[in-house]
User: Which sequence fits this backbone?
């Protein structure tokens, strides 16, 4: 254990690890290739904000390949058999054996909904970001994105993750409320050649002794969270969707209020950049944030999607390392907002644009009923480096076209009856956290120091619990961005947070409800409220610019039965 290393040594070790991992791609294990497909120079649609880095040198015709939909992962077995660890080196969460901590007694979920068992592999693969260019990637189950999990709230899953890569992994279910053992703590590893069993209870926290369905999850995603390597492993492909449905949401779908299959579509938007040999560009010495010049939807560069004249549900996820997106439809039509991050809104809300910091989700409906035959999902944010957005395309007072990310081709085919959701449709009740319930206020200052990224003048240390709230209480956290010009989206594991104010202005619009990743713009101070429930730590909170996270802008959140105000050592009950 590297408890004695000083911060500079830690950072050097991260660099070495990333470089060693990257070298496996250059070792001849994979050779990227580019077939002589007909290159067409229609790439003027893309921005080329490449700074000092050469742009992706391949030409292609956008909107000629369909949007891929990740496969839905199927369980290997369903039931409540005794746990069989086999050769799983890191076993399973203690909560698997004592489920009372996560189950409302009157629901008896674990009897009604037997556990689903899965196996998923971390493995090498080749992926075509550009037609004919085979690019080595890291994957879950061989695809980018990985498979989509669908969960029923109340029905647990055990996912055995095996690792055939030559670097450590740690799977984080982003936006989930799950045991610490299964939360992707940065050094709770799936070791190379080993395996780890992730236990997802898929429950909701308790409120006054009963299950609080205002906390039911909808749109989550999983991704690698290994210490110092997250920017590299996510950039190379280790992520996928995890969608959950409770009775309320299933009723909305069954009663045709919300679109269900096949009109409920997860879409991860990302940027990537390729080298001349077809490999992914990645500079492990870039601490500021990796940007790309290819616009991806579900791993495909600028795809199209054929849609019917009806409503579709899209779960947009910003899966980029460092790029912010603000999405809009090219015909000026607004979205019907259903939710943000993991959770549904109390009612459907009209949204002109969707601002997505890294890891944010926007759960929306697009109504194509009266749409033109062709329209685009486009990005209007300018961004030239990892610092953050540099403005919007139409900031000059002139409406100019956004940069198209995806094309919709509207067909007249008839399908099932249209979904009834419209602005104002009731969705999920919301229980606000009262400031009167707060027992502790903590302050965290996010800053650039010593050539890297810190919180309260400290680098991440996995052995130090920086915040140890008492389970069953509420806290106020003040998140302050002191670094000149830099944007930091702050993600807090385990619990939703409620944004009270930003720079003293009370939260408005979609900020009024639940988030798991709050945007700290330059010089910004956010006040958020959180409950701490169900699971003891350790968890983490961090900047979701992945290069900032790896360069140690991360702290340990360790809820305990007995909370403390001062930092404490991490209780390593299990790894
Ligand atoms: Cu940051």
Assistant:
């Amino acid at each position: 254990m590297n408890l004695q290393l000083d911060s500079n040594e830690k950072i050097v070790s991260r660099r070495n690890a990333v470089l060693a991992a990257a070298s496996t791609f250059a070792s001849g294990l994979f050779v990227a290739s580019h077939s002589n497909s007909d290159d067409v120079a229609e790439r003027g649609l893309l921005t080329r904000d490449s700074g000092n880095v050469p742009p992706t040198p391949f030409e292609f015709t956008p909107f000629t390949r369909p949007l891929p939909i990740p496969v839905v992962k199927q369980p290997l077995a369903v039931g409540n058999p005794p746990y069989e660890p086999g050769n799983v080196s890191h076993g399973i969460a203690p909560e698997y054996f004592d489920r009372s901590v996560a189950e409302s007694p009157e629901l008896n979920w674990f009897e009604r909904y037997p556990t689903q068992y899965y196996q998923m592999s971390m493995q090498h693969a080749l992926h075509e970001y550009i037609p004919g260019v085979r690019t080595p990637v890291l994957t879950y189950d061989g695809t980018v994105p990985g498979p989509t999990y669908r969960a029923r709230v109340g029905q647990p899953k055990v996912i055995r993750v095996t690792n055939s890569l030559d670097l450590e992994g740690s799977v984080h279910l982003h936006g989930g409320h799950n045991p610490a053992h299964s939360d992707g703590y940065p050094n709770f590893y799936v070791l190379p050649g080993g395996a780890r069993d992730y236990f997802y209870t898929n429950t909701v926290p308790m409120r006054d002794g009963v299950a609080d369905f205002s906390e039911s999850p909808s749109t989550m995603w999983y991704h690698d969270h290994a210490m110092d390597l997250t920017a590299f492993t996510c950039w190379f492909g280790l992520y996928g969707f995890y969608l959950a449905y409770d009775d309320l949401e299933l009723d909305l779908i069954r009663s045709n209020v919300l679109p269900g299959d096949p009109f409920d579509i997860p879409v991860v938007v990302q940027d990537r950049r390729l080298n001349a040999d077809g490999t992914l560009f990645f500079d492990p010495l870039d601490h500021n944030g990796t940007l790309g010049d290819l616009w991806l939807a579900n791993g495909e560069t600028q795809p199209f999607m054929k849609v019917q004249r009806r409503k579709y549900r899209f779960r947009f996820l910003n899966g980029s390392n460092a790029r912010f997106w603000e999405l809009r439809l090219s015909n000026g039509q607004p979205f019907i907002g259903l939710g943000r991050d993991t959770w549904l809104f109390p009612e459907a809300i009209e949204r002109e644009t969707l601002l997505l910091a890294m890891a944010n989700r926007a759960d929306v409906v697009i109504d194509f009923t009266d749409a033109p035959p062709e329209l685009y999902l486009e990005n209007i944010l300018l961004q030239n480096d990892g610092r953050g957005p540099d403005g919007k395309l139409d900031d000059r007072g002139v409406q100019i076209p956004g940069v198209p990310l995806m094309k919709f081709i509207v067909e007249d085919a008839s399908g099932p009856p249209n979904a009834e959701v419209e602005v104002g449709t009731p969705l999920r009740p919301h229980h606000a956290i009262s400031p009167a319930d707060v027992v502790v206020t903590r302050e965290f200052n996010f800053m650039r120091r010593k050539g890297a990224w810190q919180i309260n003048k400290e680098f991440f240390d996995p052995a130090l619990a920086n915040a140890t709230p008492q389970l069953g209480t509420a806290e106020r956290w003040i998140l302050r961005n002191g670094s000149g010009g830099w944007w930091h989206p702050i993600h807090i594991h385990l619990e939703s947070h409620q944004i009270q104010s930003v720079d003293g202005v009370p939260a408005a619009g979609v900020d009024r409800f639940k988030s798991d990743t709050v945007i700290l713009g330059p010089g910004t101070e956010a006040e958020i409220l959180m409950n701490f429930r169900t699971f003891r730590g350790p968890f983490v909170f961090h900047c979701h610019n992945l290069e900032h996270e790896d360069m140690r802008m991360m702290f340990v959140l360790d809820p305990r039965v007995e909370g403390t105000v001062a930092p404490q050592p991490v209780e390593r009950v299990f790894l």
Q: What stands out?
A: The pocket of copper (II) ion is lined by residues 488, 543, 545, 548, 553 (CB under 6 Å). Confidence is low (pLDDT under 50) at residues 1-12, 25-50. Residues 77-243 form a domain with the Immunoglobulin-like fold (CATH 2.60.40.420).
